[in-house]
Amino acid sequence: MSSNGFVRVAALSELEEDTPKRVEVDGVAVSIVAAEGEIFAINDICSHANVSLSEGEVEDCMIECWLHGSRFDLRTGKPSGLPATRPVPVYPVKIEGDDVLVSVTQES
Ligand code: FES
Q1: Which is an annotated Pfam family here (predicted)?
Q2: Least crowded by CB within 10 Å, which of 78, 79, 83, 85?
Q3: Does residue 108 sit within a domain?
Q4: Using CB atoms within 10 A of its CB, is residue 28 exposed (0-12), middle (13-18) or buried (19+)?
Q5: Residue 94 sits in which domain range?
């Protein structure tokens, strides 16, 4: 069961390092990424245009938008360079056993 808005989105064992997985949480598209020993949840839509970030590549805890190349920090959602100037929302993640849970009702 979910609590405090946390919803199960994936099994921990199915996530591959630096390989985003697109999920929907309460109607919000979210990209789940395992990187550097942690699990991150970032809104799947680039802040520059309507592009799915989960189709981009992950490196050094950054997810890259494939269209124009802005990279967003998985920890903060902040872009490291143009053309995107606004951050993408990131969400809190909880691990319970093999379950990955995300809450989109609060931004972390
Ligand atoms: S659409 Fe993502 S950087 Fe332009």
Answers
A1: Rieske
A2: 85
A3: no
A4: middle
A5: 6-103
Integer Cα distance of 42 and 87 in angstroms: 10
Token representation of residue 22: 């697109």
pTM strictly above 0.70: yes
Nearest atom in ligand 1 to 49's CA: 1
The CB density around residue 83, as the number of other CB atoms within 10 Å, is 14
Number of domains in the chain: 1
Alpha carbon of 37 to those of 15, 18, 31, 40, 77: distances in Å?
11, 10, 16, 10, 18
What integer pLDDT is reported at residue 4 of this predicted model?
Answer: 75
CA 33 – CA 39 distance, rounded (Å): 6
* Per-residue pLDDT tens over the stretch 58-68: 999 999 999 99
Give the residue ranges of the chain where pLDDT is below 70.
1-3, 106-108
User: Is 65 near ligand 1, meaning CB less than 6 Å away?
Assistant: yes
